[in-house]
Design goal:
The chain is built from 13 helices and eight strands. It is α+β, with helices and mostly antiparallel strands and 383 residues long.
């Protein structure tokens, strides 16, 4: 596996996107305090997402005939890296741009592509993912939410949980059982597009430890869907989901969740004039790990650009990346605590508190550490 993860460089034509997108982001976040910027891909700002769409920064890898930029994964990597490094609020378009659009492009009907993809590219259609269910933990294959065929299409019943921004989004792509039982595991699963405004859909926000409510539980009670709600072939849901998760686990979002806190700490250290060995060692430790993980993430993106599905490699980057992200608030908190006579700016303190509280979720979203390590072990032939 490691031989296949060849290090790559970002193409010059994609690097050129940094200057204009950075200027646009700087203007958008100018009034955002640091602790708000630390939320980044939990932050929901529909107007900002529409502005990104108007500027051509959404759907960068989609064909032009669907409103995309036809640029490939490297262009999206550059834009996403700039957005996350600055702490821009990207939650509105995040799932649609990263996962839903490629899924519909690869498996959807032409009618689905023509209807949904241009809206995603314009920042006008927001999606969430319906995978997790109550009582299932990370056992995605134990799906119980069920869609039965009817004369008009599908009748959907069941429940999803930990669904990001469902209360704000337009659609959910839900993994549901269309045949068999939960005991059948990977067999009989399909993906359906659910209009979240449809009768029978109930959404309840879940308040987390930070006081935010970007998660939700979603209930389906006799929700009627058309035949055109099905993505791909019935029963192919598991194959489609595993391909989709390679997009979720491979990007820079698995490196930069704590980066706003790192930047705030560096500014604090510089303002305090502190250049002791411990400070230099911590800054070097974080920088070295970030640089290495970034190189690995670019290498995985190169595999995606080549049309491959680097499931094992993406899982490795995600596991290592979230481990670093989770360590950041502890390391910085210990550093600040080790200098008790050094005044701490209120914004740095708020940001540290937020990241400390949200950090446990970093290794849950996109697949738990245990699930990822199982995937890695299988990829290495160890199980």
């Amino acid at each position: 596996m490691f031989d296949s993860l060849t290090l790559s460089r970002l193409p010059a034509e994609d690097e050129a996107l940094r200057v204009p997108v950075r200027a646009m982001i700087a203007e958008a976040i100018a009034s955002l305090p640091v602790h708000k910027r630390a939320r980044s891909w939990q932050g929901f700002d529909a107007a900002f997402s529409r502005a990104l769409g108007e500027a051509g920064y959404l759907g960068l890898s989609l064909p032009k005939r669907y409103g995309g930029g036809e640029r490939g994964p490297f262009a999206r990597f550059v834009v996403v890296e700039e957005l996350l490094a600055a702490g821009a609020p990207v939650g509105a378009h995040w799932i649609a741009d990263r996962q839903s659009a490629p899924l519909i492009l690869n498996y959807g009907t032409e009618a689905q592509r023509e209807f949904y993809l241009p809206r995603i590219c314009r920042g006008e259609a927001f999606f969430c993912i319906g995978m997790s269910e109550p009582g299932s933990g990370s056992d995605l294959a134990s799906v119980r939410t069920r869609a039965e065929r009817t004369d008009k299409g599908w009748l959907l019943n069941g429940q999803k949980i930990w669904t990001t921004n469902a209360m704000h989004d337009d659609y959910m792509i839900a993994l549901v059982r269309t045949s068999g039982t939960a005991a059948d595991r990977h067999q009989g699963l399909s993906q359906l597009i659910v209009d979240l405004k449809a009768p029978g859909v109930t959404i309840r926000p879940i308040v987390d430890l930070t006081g935010d409510a970007h998660f939700a539980e979603v209930f389906f009670e006799n929700v009627e869907l058309g035949e055109d709600a099905l993505i791909g072939r019935e029963g192919d849901g598991w194959h489609q989901v595993t391909a989709e998760l390679a997009f979720e686990r491979s990007g820079p979002e698995r490196i930069y969740s704590s980066i706003v806190l790192v930047d705030a700490w560096i500014r604090h250290v510089a303002a305090a004039g502190r250049l002791d060995n411990g400070t230099a060692e911590l800054a070097g430790h974080l920088t070295a790990q970030l640089a290495t993980l970034r190189a690995m993430s670019i290498a995985v993106t190169a595999r995606l650009a080549a049309g491959e599905s680097p499931v094992t490699e993406a899982s490795l980057v995600k596991d290592l990346g979230t481990t670093l992200e989770q360590s950041v608030p502890t390391l910085i908190g210990d550093d600040l605590g080790g200098h008790p006579d050094e005044p701490v700016d209120a914004e740095l303190y708020k940001t540290l508190m937020y990241v400390s509280q949200i950090a446990p979720s970093f290794s849950l979203r996109g697949g738990t550490r245990e699930i990822l390590r199982g995937i890695i072990a299988r990829g290495l032939g160890l199980r």
